[in-house]
Amino acid sequence: MIDERRLYLVCPCDSEQHGDLTAVGVRQARALGDALGEVSLQAAYSAPDLAAMETAEAIAHRHGLVVRPRPGLGFDPEDAVGLNRARILRTFDHIALAGPGRQTLVVAPAIALGIMIRRCTGETPTSGDLQDPEPASLTEVLVEGRSCHLVRVADHSHLGALGRSG
User: Fold this and answer.
1) Dihedral (Cα; 158, 161, 165, 166), 10-degree rounding
2) CATH class for domain 4-162?
């Protein structure tokens, strides 16, 4: 059996300053749910902030999943950048290495997703060449053994007529 897993990394949808999804964000989350409708997700994880949780719940609901909050997916401005990066990568590695054949949803802030994507490209997590994903973007990662490969990065095609800003 091939030890292969897929991660679907999603940047939280458009939200108010206090964290609730905006009307545009709700439509973006529905579009993401539709885009992942044919994927057989087995698990859903989210950073604990409100926008990430609401985005993850909108997608996971379609798959009959309960979202599991993971503080290690968030970026804590109180911590040093290096501590955040190490925590995010530990959490990413733990999720990425779970179960052969598993397909998993991960919703996290753009800065955390940028760190994860850089891990998969082999770039140093601090290099600024790669832009962090925009709200409602979808990145697909193929994990084989202990290696990860990007299938698509910061894709917005699922938004269709909504466009990036709704």
Assistant:
1) -100
2) alpha beta
CA atoms within 13 A on the CB side of 50: 11
Q: Where is 119: in which H helix or E strand?
A: helix 110-121
Q: Residue-wise over 131-160: b if at least 16 C-beta within 10 A, else e?
A: ebbebbbbbbbebeeeebeeeebbebebbe
Map out the domains of the chain as residue ranges.
4-162
Structure tokens at 63: 């798959």
pTM, to two decimals: 0.91
Measured torsion, CA atoms of residues 114, 27, 166, 69, in degrees rounded to the nearest 10:
-20
pLDDT digits over 41-99, tens only?
999 999 999 999 999 999 999 999 999 999 999 988 898 888 999 999 999 999 998 87
Tokens coding 35: 């885009």
